[in-house]
Amino acid sequence: VMESTISITVVGASGDLAKKKIFPALFALYYEGFLPKHFTVFGYARSKMTDEELRTMVSKTLTCRIDQRENCGDKMEQFLKRCFYHSGQYNSEENFAELDKKLREKEVGKVPNRLFYLSIPPNIFVDVVRCASYSASSSTGWTRVIVEKPFGRDSESSAELTRCLKLYLNEDQIFRIDHYLGKELVENLSVLRFSNLVFEPLWSRNYIRNVQFIFSEDFGTEGRGGYFDSYGIIRDIMQNHLLQILALFAMETPVSLDAEDIRNEKVKVLRSMRPLQLDDVITGQYKGHMKGGKAYPAYTDDPTVPNDSLTATFAAAALFIDNARWDGVPFLMKAGKALHKRGAEIRVQFRHVPGNLYKRTFGTDLDKATNELVIRVQPDETIYLKINNKIPGLGMRLDRSNLDLHYAARYPREIPDAYERLLLDAIEGERRLFIRSDELDAAWALFSPLLKELEEKKIAPELYPYGSRGPVGAHYLAAKYNVRWGDLS
Ligand code: BG6
Known about the structure:
Its EC number is 1.1.1.49. The chain has helices at 16-31, 51-59, 72-81, 93-107, 125-136, 155-168, 184-195, 225-229, 232-250, 259-271, 359-362, 407-410, 418-428, 437-456, 473-480, and strands spanning 4-11, 39-45, 83-87, 111-118, 143-148, 174-177, 208-216, 281-287, 289-291, 294-296, 314-319, 331-336, 343-350, 372-378, 382-390, 398-406, 462-465. It is of the alpha/beta class. The mean pLDDT is 94. Residues 179, 217, 236 line the site of 6-O-phosphono-beta-D-glucopyranose (BG6).
């Protein structure tokens, strides 16, 4: 039997994502022994660079996660020896043919498998795929392409992108990344739900009052204003990262753990949702602010952002799933940049205990006595359940306590970066954590009409100070559904 080899080509090799995430993830996989025996890594971009220069650039961002690990330096050297560079235009068949030639030299005598990671702006996805596919078509191994969002700006442009990609690729060659799906606690969601009897039976409108998906960053667009301004927070975070988590949270039990079975359930729940209504969304934009003697910039101070930009850097939304399990339960989302804290959490607020025997000990504020399950995706991965508990001692006084699974204490080992898991899955052809095209269509169908309306009506975002908790409008929106936002812990 012929051995196989894999060539991993990072298109857009000198970009930020490649340097910060992709090369380090590839090295981490190599370091841990997850890459196949025969592999090469190629960087492709427009800038002129030698192999050596690429290696120097890449080496600056490689880490062994925990420094001073054994053999780290040696492993880095071995890894870097397998890294090469080819400079070319993104729309040049000729340049890709040259790359193809170099790839073939490394593939001699082996079954050639090829993975392309498109770490480039979406307007050149199709060019690259077209150029790369000409030369790849003769190979006997597989060819897969990883693409990163934005997948269009709305239903139409997304469908058009899919149509163009499919001129050159089959659906099963396209790996659409949503890196939130590669996060440890997001992957754990299904384990929590479907392998614990104490959760799944409670997972419905009968016991759950509302669910919150919260994303918060304590920094602004800082240099990415150019990209961000034409997308905004709803497209950047909600339509993909938060909605994906919601789908995993709310889907029915899949037939199996097979990628198609899981994605079928996600599509089903997305298609059961009501498209977002303007009334159920509020948007915000951060403004400059002085804090502790330091001046924090406004979003519109970013040199790449127009002064009169109406782009949202914050949004809160209420979503509804019109199916038997979730009828009437508000699913709230909140996402913002330049807020007071960095973190991402899922918060599940349970209903009040009927006829609560202990209600007097809590006073009138029943909210303070309801159970809440918190899944902190980052930083500091934790799952905890707020329960009522007797304060030890004489008398009967109750207290809210946490049943707490703190990852750092329970699993004292490094959690792999999302990109490691996703790259490994793409190499192994595991599609479970990638977005299928019908899933993408369903996600856009929910957000497209709203985004169009926001833009057409030129709805002005509510300004909030950099480093604050965001616009007060988010509280009114939640209050409309009798919900109080949980505070990032
Ligand atoms: C990206 C967004 O998808 O996710 C960025 O484009 C955001 O705006 C980033 O900062 C957040 O990812 P993480 O993994 O740092 O939470």
